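Key result, reporting period 2: structure in, sequence out.
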């Protein structure tokens, strides 16, 4: 039985783990929210390494075919229980989105109400679409993961990622001295323009560069590249400094043959951060958006793709071709 166009939507469907050719734009039935769930009219969906891991087959608990996307930004289309009004601007993220149920790479998605955070903003949708998961992870890494304090020093390993730019913005709000790395010398200017005090070219031995600037080592370091660079990042931190493992730009996140006494520098603390929608307070999201609208904060560059170019976006994400956050516009 054919479904009429007004009861369907466009969505990017991942048929199974593999290359970008496994991503296709299809027309699917409009999803219906169950009790406790909300249907969101998606305007924009940010891309994340998590979705790359899903496509490459690294994520656990995923069934196929699946609409990817661990976040979405748009408006409430239907809340069967009337808790959220139609038209309310919202972000939705995590909680199984794009893995155990269909996610944000679509014109509509249904999500548990607990995964929805309301806001109000006149910023463009592509700008808003770059914020939710990046801000949630940045805020959690700075507060819970690092317990960063005013006046401290921070090393960001992987500074030209969307998350690196967001953490820089939050750290500069605190009056923190920021050191951030890039593997590409031509991207040093982008870091400087975003407020990084000491942009560094990552040649694999960043600790030596850090200690040339801060001999005792930094107070805090955020590891966004993965386990290949983690030992060097640990060596860049001072005694009683904290290193937070948050990102996996390298697609490597397991430390093999881990011998703690030999691996961890004496007195350096290693933590990790992984959060959910509940870890981004609505007031933090609203304050951040308000400051973005006032020109006081920036998430860095935003690269926008129409839904039909989801394959191109994934190629660019996988190969690190673009600086900043990649966003799909669904309309």
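The corresponding designed sequence is given below.
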């Amino acid at each position: 039985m054919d479904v009429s166009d007004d009861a369907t939507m466009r969505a990017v469907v991942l048929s199974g783990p593999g290359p970008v050719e496994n991503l296709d734009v299809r027309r699917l039935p409009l999803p219906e929210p169950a009790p406790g769930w909300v249907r969101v009219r998606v305007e924009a969906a940010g891309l994340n390494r998590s979705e790359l891991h899903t496509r490459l087959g690294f994520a656990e608990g995923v069934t196929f075919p699946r609409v990817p996307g661990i976040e979405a930004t748009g408006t409430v289309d239907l809340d069967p229980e009337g808790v959220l009004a139609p038209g309310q601007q919202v972000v939705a993220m995590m909680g199984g989105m794009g893995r155990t149920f269909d996610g944000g790479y679509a014109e509509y998605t249904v999500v548990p109400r607990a995964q929805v955070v309301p806001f109000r903003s006149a910023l463009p949708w592509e700008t808003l679409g770059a914020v939710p998961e990046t801000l949630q992870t940045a805020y959690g890494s700075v507060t819970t993961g690092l317990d960063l304090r005013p006046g401290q020093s921070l090393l960001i390993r992987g500074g030209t990622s969307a998350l690196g730019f967001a953490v820089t913005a939050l750290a500069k709000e605190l009056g923190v001295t920021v050191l951030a790395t890039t593997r590409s010398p031509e991207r040093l200017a982008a870091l400087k323009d975003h407020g990084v005090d000491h942009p560094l070219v990552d040649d694999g031995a960043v600790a030596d560069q850090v200690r040339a600037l801060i001999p005792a080592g930094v107070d805090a370091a955020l590891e966004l590249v993965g386990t290949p660079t983690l030992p060097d990042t640990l060596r860049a931190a001072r005694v009683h400094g904290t290193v937070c493992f948050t990102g996996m730009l390298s697609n490597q996140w397991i430390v093999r043959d881990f011998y703690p006494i030999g691996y961890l520098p004496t007195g350096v603390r290693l933590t990790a951060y992984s959060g959910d929608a509940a870890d981004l307070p609505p007031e933090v999201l609203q304050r951040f958006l308000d400051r973005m609208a006032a020109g006081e904060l920036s998430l860095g560059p935003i690269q926008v793709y129409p839904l039909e170019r989801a394959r191109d976006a994934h190629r660019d994400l996988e190969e690190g071709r673009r600086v900043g956050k990649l966003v799909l516009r669904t309309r």
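The chain has a mean pLDDT of 95. The longest helix spans residues 132-145. This case is discussed further under Risks and Mitigation.
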